[in-house]
């Protein structure tokens, strides 16, 4: 159990690393497109080896892979449209409320329900996410983003359940890299189509500096790989909830290190509520 929590901690640090790197890059550069490309070039070959040599291909793995590819693509569509209508500080915390949906789908589809303490912990952490999102609703009028946010949260719950199913046939880290890389390939192609539509070219008009691009390439996929790998030890809802520790860390760093003072008291309070919920969840393991 301790090793599983350690891997989640490493995944959270990697997730925060590439998200903070993205904040230093011009939006026209489409940091996510470059990050996915760097992942596929640097770590994609590891994934190809893992899928060919280690993965136990079955109908359940094939089905989970296909659904994950579609859900990941719809997730990026949802986020992209939501970000066009509302600030990221409002959109992302709401999109990360998916653990409650995962609990619902797990109960409806598999008849499995978390214990009372786990459910309370997850609920408190999601309440903190909603409180954090309210700090990003500075000017109101964010209602148009809500359907797209709901789509992103729904897709997160879908591909997380598929990840839980797939991990039983992915016995090694390279195999999980391959599974993730398949989904990222589809997402990369989708973002490339968006580039063509928005800029008239397949490649964004600028490239992020290497000091920001390389961390993205190394962390954007590896963090997801570790999250999936841990699902062989913990329920999917628990793992996704624990990864929201990254939101707590990013909120604290933005106030303490980056000097972002707008609504800082409410943001720190929201981070504390999220952390308290995750603590309740962790103590129940």
Architecture blueprint of SSEs:
Blueprint: H1 2-22, H2 31-42, H3 44-53, H4 59-85, H5 88-95, H6 98-110, H7 116-134, H8 146-166, H9 173-199, H10 210-219, H11 222-230, H12 236-243, H13 245-256, H14 264-283
Helix pairs in contact: 1-10, 1-11, 1-13, 2-9, 2-10, 3-9, 4-8, 4-9, 5-7, 5-8, 6-7, 6-8, 6-12, 7-14, 9-11, 13-14
Explain the overall architecture:
This protein has 285 residues and is mainly α. The chain has one domain. 76% of the residues lie in helices and 0% in strands. It is built from 14 helices and no strands.
Number of H- or I-type helical stretches? 14
End-to-end Cα distance: 8 Å
| Extended strand count | 0
Radius of gyration: 18 Å
List segments where confidence is low: pLDDT < 50 over at least 5 consecutive residues: none
Strand/helix succession: HHHHHHHHHHHHHH
Characteristic key phrases:
285 residues, mainly alpha
Put the structure in a nutshell.
This protein has helices spanning 2-22, 31-42, 44-53, 59-85, 88-95, 98-110, 116-134, 146-166, 173-199, 210-219, 222-230, 236-243, 245-256, 264-283. The chain has 285 residues and is mostly helical.
């Amino acid at each position: 159990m301790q090793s599983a929590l350690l891997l989640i901690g490493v995944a959270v640090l990697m997730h925060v690393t590439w998200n903070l790197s993205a904040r230093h890059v011009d939006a026209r550069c489409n940091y996510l497109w470059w990050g996915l490309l760097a992942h596929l070039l640097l770590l994609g070959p590891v994934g190809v080896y893992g899928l060919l040599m280690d993965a136990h291909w079955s109908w359940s793995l094939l089905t989970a892979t296909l659904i994950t590819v579609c859900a990941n693509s719809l997730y990026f569509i949802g986020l992209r449209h939501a970000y066009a209508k509302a600030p990221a500080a409002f959109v992302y915390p709401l999109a990360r409320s998916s653990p409650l949906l995962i609990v619902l789908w797990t109960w409806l589809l598999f008849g499995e329900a978390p214990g009372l303490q786990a459910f309370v912990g997850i609920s408190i952490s999601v309440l903190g996410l909603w409180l954090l999102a309210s700090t990003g609703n500075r000017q109101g009028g964010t209602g148009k983003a809500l359907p797209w946010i709901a789509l992103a949260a729904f897709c997160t719950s879908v591909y997380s359940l598929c990840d839980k199913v797939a991990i039983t046939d992915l016995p090694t880290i390279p195999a999980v890299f391959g599974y993730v890389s398949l989904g990222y390939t589809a997402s990369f192609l989708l973002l490339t189509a968006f580039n063509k539509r928005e800029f008239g070219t397949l490649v964004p008009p600028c490239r992020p500096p290497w000091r920001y691009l390389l961390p993205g390439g190394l962390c954007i996929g590896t963090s997801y790989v570790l999250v999936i790998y841990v699902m062989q030890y913990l329920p999917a809802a628990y793992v996704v909830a624990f990864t929201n520790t990254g939101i707590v860390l990013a909120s604290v760093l933005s106030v303490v290190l980056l000097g972002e003072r707008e609504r800082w008291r409410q943001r720190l309070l929201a981070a504390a509520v999220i952390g308290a919920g995750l603590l309740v969840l962790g103590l129940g393991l």
